[in-house]
Amino acid sequence: SDYPYVSFSLEGEQREQNDNLNSLANNYILSLIVVYLLLAIPFRSYIQPFIVMSAIPFGIIGAVAGHILFGMNFSILSMIGIVALSGVVVNDSLVLVDFINRYKKEGKTIYEAALESGQARFRPILLTSITTFVGLTPLLLEKSLQAQFLIPMAISLGFGVLFSTFITLILIPNTVLIVDKTKTKFLRKFS
Q1: Could you point out which of 9, 59, 105, 121 has its C-alpha 20 to 30 Å from the C-alpha of 89?
Q2: Is the separation of the CB atoms in 161 and 132 below 8 Å?
Q3: pTM
């Protein structure tokens, strides 16, 4: 406060890393918006894309847990792994919501469709997630110096997929039921 004309700034590698993180964050937000729009078009709904994307935070929690388990700090590659993880998590959720929509069109109740989705899609979703994690395991266990910089990305992707899979199988059908019940109550109230 005695010298208001004096300022400081980070330069060199630290400045470049901050610029990269800002760019990654901006592009990640843009990609989430594009994913939302791409989901809204075929679903013809503004709410269902949010349901599909609601599993993304749980994938991020899994990525953080994986870093804690391995005792690693977050890096730019960890964040890139989270971006890739978001796509995989959206894919799992998309499979469930699409299955529910198809069953509902066949005349089933929303409850039957949600219940059946978890049972019918359990094995394919679980197998994809486990094979993704197992495929990343050699990289996670690699000790060579050349592979060390890729391990944070593999941790983010592997543990995020593993954790979000179980949450997705429970969260998505229940969220569909909650949204449907809320929509029904809302329509009754205003009709």
Answers
A1: 105
A2: yes
A3: 0.82
Give CA–CA dist 119/101, Å, rounded. Answer: 15
Cβ atoms of 125 and 168 closer than 8 Å: yes
Please list the alpha-helical segments (H only) found in the chain: 13-43, 48-53, 56-70, 76-105, 110-141, 151-189
Angle at 185 between CA 184 and CA 189, to 5 degrees: 120
What are the residues whose beta carbons fall under 8 Å from the beta carbon of 154, sequence distance 6 or more?
Answer: 81, 136, 139, 140
Q: What is the pLDDT along the chain (191 residues), one digit of tens a residue?
A: 787 887 766 666 666 767 777 888 888 899 999 999 999 999 988 999 999 999 999 999 999 999 999 998 888 889 899 999 998 899 889 989 999 999 999 989 999 999 898 888 899 899 989 999 999 999 888 888 888 888 999 999 999 999 999 899 999 999 999 999 998 888 888 76
Task: Count the Cβ atoms, other than its own, within 10 Å of residue 164.
Answer: 27
User: What span, in angstroms and rounded, lies between the C-alpha atoms of 66 and 76?
Assistant: 15
How many Å apart are CA 75 and CA 79, to the nearest integer? 7
Q: Is the dihedral of CA 19, 24, 25, 29 positive or negative?
A: positive
